[in-house]
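We read letters as residues; the fold follows as C-alpha cells. Both lines appear below.
***
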Amino acid sequence: MVEFRALGVARWRAVPVPVWIAVLAALWFGALAMATPFDHDESQYVAGAHFAARLTIFRDFLYLQPPIHAWAYAPIAWGFPGHAVMAMRMATAMTALATLWLLWRGQRIAGVSRASAMMAVMLVSATAAFQFSASVVRNDMLPTMLTAMAMVAALMALRDGRGRLWLAAGLCLGLAIATKLNFAPVGIAAGLFLVASRWQGSVRAAGWLGTGAVVGMVPMLLAWWGAPDGFVHGVLTFGISAPHAWYAANGAAQDLSLAEKGADLIKYLAKGPALVALVLIIARCRWMVDAPGRRLALWMIGGAMIGAALPTPTQVQYLLPLLPPLALALGFCLDDLRRVSERSRRIMLGLLVIASVPGMVEPARDMMAMLRGGSPVLAAARDARASGVLVRAVAGDGMIATLSPHLMIDSGLAIDPRFAPGPFVYRTGALLSPVEARSLHVMTPATLGDLDRAPPAAILTGYERGTRKLPLRPDDGLVGYARSRGYRAVPMRDGVGMLFVRAIPAAAAPCQPLRTASAG
C-alpha cells in the first residue's frame, strides 16, 4: 500500500508545472464565466449570435459590430438551445485560455526564458481587462486571440524568414479587424514596423502582411456587399454618433471629453499590472530596439494604445489590443533584468504582483458571490426557460419583445429581431427617422406602434432602468406600450424584471413571480 501511494505521488509530481497552471487557469476561467454578472453590452452580442444562426446579418437584423464574432458564435447559439448563453460564455473562457497559451508560445519563439514568459503571461492575465473579457459574451477576446496568433506567426517569420508566415500573420490581423475595429491600429503598426525596417526582404514581407490582412477582411466586405446600408450604420455611423447623443441626452456629455478619456485609460491600466509594466518597458526602451522581435513589440504597443483610445466612451475591455504585445515586451524586460541583477528582477516582480491585486478584486468578489448565492447565468437561464413555459401556456408561441434579449434567448421563444441591438439603437432612436428604422429592421420609440401589426406574446422589461450617471429609462416606452394594450405583469423571480404577458385570463390574476432561482 505504501509503495502504491508513493507511486501515485511520484506520478503527480511528474506532471510538468505548466500543465498544472493550464489546468488551474481552465478551471478559473470556466468558473468565472459562471460567476460574472451580466454585462450591459452582452445583449447585442448574444442576440447577434442567436440571429446570425437564423437570419442574414445587417439585412434581416441590425448588428452594431463587424460580423466575425456573430458568425463564429452562431453555431454555439444554434447548438445549445436552452443553454446558449452559458455555452457562449464558456467558449469565451476557452478562447482566453488559448490566448494565454499563444502569448507564452510567442515569447518562447522570440527567445524569452521559460520562467519570464510564464510570469509575463500570468501578469497580463491578472489585468481587469483580461479577466472581464474572458468571462462575458463580447467581441473582445476573439480578436485578442487572433492578434496573439498573428504575433506568433510574425515572430516565426522574423526567425525563419518565410513569406507565407507574414501572410498568415496578416490573415489573422485582418480577421481580428473584421471582429472589432479598434484592433486595426495594431495591424497598421505591424505593417509600419516592416516598412520602417531596413533588413533585406522587409518590404516584401510588408506586402505579404498586407495581402493577408486584406484576405482576412473579406468576410467584412461580403457583409457590406450583402447589406451596405445596414453595415454602414451598424459598424460605422452608430459608433460615431450614438454614444455622444446618448450621453448628451443624459446631461453627461462632459464624460466623453478627451481629458476624461485619458483619465479613464490610466484608470483601467492601473486595474492590474499593465500600467507598471508599461512604465518598465518605457524605462528600458533604448534596450528594446536591438532585435526585430523587440521592435515589433514596441510598434504594436504604440498601435494598441491608439486602438484603446478610439472607442467612445472608454471602457476597460478596450485595452485588449494592448495585451499581446505587452506580454511579449514584458517577457523581454524580465529577462533583461535577470541579466542585470537578480535583486532588481525580484523587486520589479514584487511591484508587478502587487499591482495585479486591483485587477483580481472584482473577479474574486464575483466568485465569492456565486459560492454564496449560485451562478447568476445559470439562474437567468432557468428563469428564461420558466418564462417560456408560462408564455406558451398563456399566449402561445408568439415573439418576445425586449431590450434585454440575452435574458430571453434560452426561453425557447422567438425574439423579435428588431430588438437584436438590445437597448442601444432604441435609446437613441431619434437619430433615425421611422422610414430609416424600418429599412434597417430596427425598433425605435417612434416605431413602437408597429408592434400592433403582430402583437408580441410577451414583453420583458425592467433591466434598462437607467443608472445614476445615465438616468434615462429606455424600458419606460415598452412598459407604457404593454400597459396600454392590456398585458398582464408577471414579476421575474430576480426582483428586477417584469414580464408582460398577453391574454392572461382574469382568473389568473394576481400573477405570481416565476418560481425559479434568482437571476442574481
